[in-house]
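Hey L., structure's done. Input below.
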Amino acid sequence: MEITRISNDSKLETFSDEVFFEIFDRLSPSDLYKTFYGLNIRFNTILNDSRMRFRDNLSLLTPKQFHSYVKNILPQIIDRLISFTFGTYDTDEYQQVNLFLHKYSIDLSLFQHLRTLVIIKMTIADFSIVQSALMHLKNLVNIRFSVDSNDVDTTSFVHINNDLLSRPKLKRVKMDMCSRTTFDNVTQLSNIEQLSIVWCQIQELTHLLQYSPCLSTLKATICGLNDVDQWTQTIRGNLNQKCSSRLNSLKLVVDSIRFDHLLILLHELRQLRSLWLLLNHHEYLDTEKWENLFQTSLLHLDQLDLTIALTKPFLSINSPNQLLMFSSPHIACTKFNTNFWLHRGWRAKLDEYDHCVRLTVSNNTLPI
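Output:
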């Protein structure tokens, strides 16, 4: 039997730098430096090469591991990270974001090659620090931020400005701020294509839309409307001209907004092809208003997922024979299953629970 000998030229160290870059891209910086750094000059050179890029997620590190990482690993790779996640879901154990920004005073503006930044459960005060640093990160493409719910109350606000949204390469933004998010300070056009917000008022959302010409997908929780007349005059007949003609997918959780006001917004978004709505008031059972919307404005809509969740009628404590709320979801369900809806491939179903009913109209609803 002929024995094939492995030549010295096939040793691991003879691979090109590009091959190592590809292999090391799949490993965490901590594992890389712990395993390869110090083995020989070749590996040291590759790990310190300016072309080497790193991705890391610190959210699962223990306090001891986090301290070691910040002291020993981060200084060597901070300007070569392209994806970085920090912050902990359990802030009772330790507040990683606070340590990162304050105890260790890490300057986010030094992450010059960063494309993806995820920060988990920061405080509102910390968000201001983060937002100011973002103006220096020209390569950002993806952002996902969340605020610690223990840091907010009913009077809390998060103010978004141009520093965050106007990054030249920024395409995808997700913000779960656990408090009202405002966009009054946004005055520059953005290149954002996908946006997710929890939560804001409807007039703030429409203000943002006017500065988002590239937006194609929007998810938001919206509530409230302060000056109805001014808002109506501002967007009616104008929003469709100013906001993105690419906005084809809209997902809204709606709270404390009148049906007529929501319709004003939807009538302006004529290019929509996919619409997902979660509503909580019986006035949304008016099928005639929905049919008018789909016949006159949303002519291109294909995908519909409409859920109306209602509290069941309860008897008043003071007047036992008086209903606190009256609705007719059973009748509405029948009206949502007429030919107008069925021809579009949309069907309605009604689910009843102990304290509420849920009417769902969608492409995916099974026939009754």
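Residues 1-10 have pLDDT under 50 and may be disordered. The longest strand covers residues 303-311.

-- N.
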